[in-house]
Amino acid sequence: MMVGPLTFRRVNHHRSEFKWWIPAFLSFRQTILVAVWFTIFAVLFIWQKNLIDGLLMFRRPPPRPIPKLRPVAFNLTDFGGVGDGRTLNTKAFEEAISSISKLEKIGGGQLNVQAGYWLTAPFNLTSHMTLFLAQDAVILAIQDEKYWTLMPPLPSYGFGREHPGPRYGSLIHGQNVTDVVITGHNGTIDGQGKAWWDKFRQKRLNHTRGPLVQIMWSSDIHISHITLRNSPFWTLHPFDCKNVSVTNVTILAPVVGAPNTDGIDPDSCENMVIEDCYISVGDDGVAIKSGWNQYGITYGRPSTNILIRNVVIRSMVSAGVSIGSEMSGGVSNVRVENLHVWNSRRGVRIKTSPGRGGYVRNITYQNVMFDNLRVGIVIKTDYNEHPDEGYNPKAVPVLEDISFTGIYGHGVRVPVRINGSEEIPVKNVTFRDMSVGITYKKKHIFQCAFVHGRVIGTIFPSPCENLDRYDEQGQLIKRSELQNISNIDYDF
């Protein structure tokens, strides 16, 4: 009789616990659901943020601010400049530079060329000036030659380089200036040279083409962090200048079909550095000059103390680094180091001829890499191109004291071709530490004629018999008795 009520009480007790557990279970379940939804929301938020951040990676960063490098800075737009690629901005450039010319006593001024396409005819720089090209700024040369100023021929070249008489000036010109800086955030100066190249080939020009940038009779010139492209003629031409530096400059022109678009031509210049540059053009990458035949001899300004280092060059038509052929004022104390020439016709070249006069001496090449070239090292003494018939054929140049150390490469057809002559022997040439892989295993791949010099240690390929042989310690092994023989083979 006592069982029933006890069982009933237990059932009621369990029901009471069950009633209490239901809301607790629901509360726990809600908590779990809230936590799950919160987690899903957080994951979606993080995923979406990462997606947006990832997409922003493909968007161009904001342009870098233009630094103020002079006490006073102007923008080209302050003078009415319009960067639409159609409006002619010559007047804006001229007025801005005129304003800067009045600031000499306080340290000069800076002209900022902002992002855009700034069409212009040629204009002149002034002393104590910085021309700054912002990121995505492009100075465009007008193509119609009637806008290009005619100037007298260069005094060390005679009556004209391509035509007798006046020559076209450069797009950007400086004359008798000092303390000039052309720099930027890799902005571009574009000569739009195709129209000039076409007219030159069609013989429709009556005057010598002008360079893209030419600085004459000036000092303390610094050019850096810009791109120069599509010059009508030589790209960067410092003439009779002192203390010039060209750093981190890219120079471009089509490697074929862009005649005479040399990269940098130091011409009768003293104390010049060219470093950390990339050059790919339709003629010589760098060509050191000092005047042409009797005119260069009379002008008498040598190119001296020139350093070229950390430069990459491509020249399918000519050579990476050349000296000459216009070298009549003399070239001396040139050092070329850490040079890479690739996919080119020639690596380094010295070219001259009877009638040039002058000299090439104290030239050093060190740590040079050749990659897929027709000829690696060239010295040529019969480059018979003359301004007129008034030259003296007995004015022969002197070539001496030229050294090659650390010359490497592969895919080179003829590693060395030194073509001296009885009139112009090449004296005191030194080769040391050379290993150049060749593509044609013929006999005469190290070619010499009228060469006096030496080989120190073991080099590859085997040197010509014109050169004395020394061991690594500089001790003479064998004296050459064949310095004047020739094994030049132009068939390959």
UniProtKB/TrEMBL annotation:
<keyword id="KW-0378">Hydrolase</keyword>
<dbReference type="InterPro" id="IPR000743">
    <property type="entry name" value="Glyco_hydro_28"/>
</dbReference>
<dbReference type="GO" id="GO:0005975">
    <property type="term" value="P:carbohydrate metabolic process"/>
</dbReference>
<dbReference type="Pfam" id="PF00295">
    <property type="entry name" value="Glyco_hydro_28"/>
</dbReference>
<dbReference type="InterPro" id="IPR051801">
    <property type="entry name" value="GH28_Enzymes"/>
</dbReference>
<keyword id="KW-0326">Glycosidase</keyword>
<dbReference type="InterPro" id="IPR012334">
    <property type="entry name" value="Pectin_lyas_fold"/>
</dbReference>
<keyword id="KW-1133">Transmembrane helix</keyword>
<feature type="transmembrane region" description="Helical">
    <location>
        <begin position="20"/>
        <end position="47"/>
    </location>
</feature>
<dbReference type="InterPro" id="IPR006626">
    <property type="entry name" value="PbH1"/>
</dbReference>
<protein>
    <submittedName>
        <fullName>Glycoside hydrolase</fullName>
    </submittedName>
</protein>
<keyword id="KW-0812">Transmembrane</keyword>
<dbReference type="InterPro" id="IPR011050">
    <property type="entry name" value="Pectin_lyase_fold/virulence"/>
</dbReference>
<keyword id="KW-0472">Membrane</keyword>
<comment type="similarity">
    <text>Belongs to the glycosyl hydrolase 28 family.</text>
</comment>
<dbReference type="GO" id="GO:0004650">
    <property type="term" value="F:polygalacturonase activity"/>
</dbReference>
